[in-house]
Amino acid sequence: MLIAIWEVLVQLAPWLLLGTVIAAVLHVALPRDLVSRQFRGYWGVVKAVLVGVPMPLCSCGVIPTGLGLKKDGASDGATVGFLISTPQTGVDSILVSASFLGWPFALFKVASAAITGLAGGWWTEAADGTVEATAHQLRADRTESNPMAEMLDHGLEILRSIWRWLLFGVVVSAAIEVMVPDQALVSLGRFGVLGAGVVALLVSLPLYVCATASVPIAAALVGAGMPASAALVFLMAGPATNVATLGAVYRGLGRKPLVIYLTTLIVGSLGLSVLFDWIIGSAAAREALGHVHATSWWETASAVVLSLLLLWFAVDDLRGFLRRRSPKSSIAMSQTLQVDGMTCQNCVRHVEEALWATDGVTGVIVDLEEGSASVAGPAARDRLVEAVQRAGYTPT
């Protein structure tokens, strides 16, 4: 099992790290207001999808960014297009998909994300193209800083935000390779392309899987006999649909955009799986999967670096957990701030770290459900407000 995990890491790490570097460069090089300006109308949907496809954001990260577009004045159509296309792929996911399943599969996956994003966005725009502009600011806005430091911080944040799901994907992939006999899932082919796709859809709809982390799982399933077209459905619907994302779309946009969002992903993933089977077929993905080459030194080095990063993130998260459980953090809270923009535990960690770093803070409790941060100690309230704002959130 450990050998299988290492083999998956060796294949995954170089492309994941390269994609992370590319994403960090884009984050610094692109205009700071590119994501939040002019996303209105049918052409605004196109721009939202073009920006969203290469972004390495999973469901967790795309929620505040996408709903931030809405708050900044983007139309519902542009927001839905962004929310559909962005979590399905990204520069890191593209490279990892090509490494595991070949470039034809990877490029078709990119095209599928763009097509479904455009379809959902245009449909929403046609149903209701009006939007109320507000003065809220996207969390993506950045303060002036050293570009290299900003690139490093952004790259580490990308990996940190997905490390649990990345590790989960690697372990599940290795387990499938070890425990599931070769060609064990060939019987899915008896259901036809649509039937196999429906099975993959039922598995992926409620499941949270990161676009990058889910690739090794899909590759292992293809290796065990699952049709590559069904794996495409898994890789499209899995990252873009889960309970948290659907709930956020409903709260932020309403029932009609949610129905369009979900319908587009279901119909689009199944329809595109049929198109994939007709144009490319599973043979190309299996051939890429079966390609074996000698492990190079840079692949091994990348796997070591990624392993150390995963260990660092795990230890850091454990320290944060123990700090929240310590008697020091359970003393009576003296001040409470409402914090707008928190959508996940990664957001909670950001706010906690910012507040703990503030002079005079002796205890912090951040509640995601209540959207609040309670602080103990003599710290000045304006300092606490500044700390929350530096973390990228809005104290209210």
Q: What would you say this structure looks like, in words?
A:
The chain has a four-stranded antiparallel beta sheet with strand order 2-3-1-4, covered by helices on one side. It is mainly α and 396 residues long. Mean pLDDT is 78; it is low at 129-143. Helices cover 67% and strands 5% of the residues. It folds into two domains: 2-303, no CATH class; 327-395, Alpha-Beta Plaits. The longest helix is centred in the middle third of the chain and has 33 residues, at 147-179. It has helices at residues 2-29, 41-52, 59-71, 76-85, 91-101, 103-127, 147-179, 192-204, 214-223, 228-240, 243-253, 255-279, 282-290, 297-325, 345-356, 381-390; strands at 335-340, 363-367, 372-376, 394-395. A hairpin with a 4-residue loop joins strand 2 (363-367) and strand 3.
Biggest sheet strand order reads 2-3-1-4
Number of strands: 4
In what range is the share of β-strand residues? under 5%
Helix content, binned percent: 55-70%
* General form: globular
Rg of Cα set: 22 Å
Span of the ends, CA to CA: 49 Å
Largest sheet: 4 strands, antiparallel
Estimate nothing, just give the exact number of structural domains.
2
